Amino acid sequence: MAAETISPTVAGILRSNRDRLGVALINSLTGWAKFEAEISDPAARQEFAQRETVALVDYLSAYFATGDQAYRDLYIGEKLKQCYDPGDNVDEAIERRRTVTTADQRTYLDVVGPHLDAPAVAALECELRSIQSLLTHPGDKICRVLLVGDCLFVDLLGFLAVPLMKAGIQLIPTFVTSKLTGQQHREIAEQQAKEFDLIFYSPLTYAFNVGFSQFQYPQGAFCTPSGAKAVVDAAKADIKLTLQTLQRLFQCQIFVHNSANLRRHDGTWLDQLKTVVTRPIRAFARRQINSWLAAFLDGLNSSSQRFILIDETGLLKATSEHQLSGYFYHNGLQHPAHFSRAVAPIYEEAIFTQAVLAKKKVIICDLDNTLWDGIIGDGAVSHRTERQSTLLRLRKKGFLLAICSKNDPKNIHWRGGTLGEDDFVCQQINWDSKSANIRRISQILNLKTKDFIFIDDRPDERALVAGAMPEIATLDADAPATWSQLSLLATLLSENPDGDRTVAYRQRAERERFLNEHSQSVDDKSKADDSEALGKLQLQLAIRHAERKELLRVAELINRTNQFNMCGTRTSLQEVTRWHDSNSHTIWVLEARDRFGSMGTISIAVVEETERGIEIPTFVLSCRVFGYGMEDALINLVKRWRPGTPIFGHFKETPHNEPCRSTYARNGFFKEQSEWVFRGGEPVPDAKWLSIRSGV
Fold it and tell me: Residue 173's beta-bridge partner residues?
């Protein structure tokens, strides 16, 4: 809200009608089973309002009084929590928010509208419509998170919801809140069937660990050293069990808080005195638990890099304990502290990185004032080695790096840099528009622009690219958040088991040059010409069943494949594991190599044996091997696997899977309603240029 739109009049009228509005806003919730038992009794509505709805009036009035965006964010976050129903899908959740906020608008205008002049009514209406628009805007990206902890997460969502919505991210939270370890683990186990993108665990924040929380109270300040150690050891045991449970049940990244061991206060002299009295014992417990937790997480990460520490003590270096632990607001069940506001950017970064950046495949970089300081055409430059090191980490994790720079290519050199020319799979260095060059990169790599991240220091260049290709994630090279997010991305990503993708793309280029050189130079090349050239590639194909150790790679390849993905399938490690362990499912893995080296895993097919025959519900193939006939070889093997058994090839058309639409028809399948079915017939020969080895 701009300073000139701050309205003390609206703020004052809202405050003077606080309790009346709180009760009236309950009407927006009628007919909803979530609250029906609490609001059906008229005598209980006043108490319910004090707990649930009065805070909304307080936030809105504070926003109109001060213009502080945080109050608006808290209002939106509180409304999101109020409208949350675990049974809703995304569309239902948005429609519920629309219904509730529409009723809210009527309530505000009915109650306070008669007391406001026309400009004030217009200001209130405008703000309520703006809030509804944000709450009902469907995010094009979904992030499902499991939150294990106490009211920190409830407070945090108030500060987190708005920036995520503005980034187009729809956050779907699931809460585990029990403070009793046994019940906590049962609640966690109940979520095992769900697929989460991230997990956040805050074991000690505020009073989530009952024993550890005694250090928040004056009587805990006089605990003996042996008594304090016993409390800390008990907390360690609880945390250890919970971390092991999360590690066993889930496969996603897990963010774990250590403890700043703050004691929230209301600013009164008595509460501040309690903070001072308990400070020594809280500091002792903080040191003990944090040193142990860091070492324990290192041990867990020795087998799989899945645990990431959220260092609460780092916030103490930037802000005083007194400021962090003060309540931002306190009433009933709503009591967000400044600590929640301070930790929200950490969560925002993690969720944005997972929901937006982790889905990408290529990072396209500008050069001048991006990967080095200065303009290389004007003379010496200073390499930004820390930025280049981050990109190098991402390249080693499977990202492709490309250059898009307005420069004279003869001026470019990497002397003194961490990166070198060989680290980039494609370079477009010329004076053409960056949008045109990015489209060339897309064509050269045979990848969609939706898979791209573009980094540039100039706002005008980023705006032009974003305007032409909004599906690209555009990042500001000069923003510290950009490199923090990319560094986190490098941490979140698993190692690429198929080797160096940059080398693989170079091999593909060599392969194409080889084929061009060895194909006959005639306008209308026959199939025989292609066969002769392909035969010289020395193509080898190995087909086998998936091993348990590679199931994560299986899930990743399915999820990252768009063009040859028969049903546009998306899956999870949990589902792939169920396929692997099932007696009726078989996961087939195809690996390829040629004279230029290994191509790694190039195809996954999931085959299910049912009463009617063999089903192929999932079938993907890498674009690296288009035109080599490897998909046909797999289908032939399935035919030979259970001779005479009908085969049902599942297919669902998507905007991107045109390359696989003729595959089943080419292999003797016939369309029966919505499926492709093979009921026998003359086999289609395997490509003669393929050397096929089957381990099934």
Answer: 145
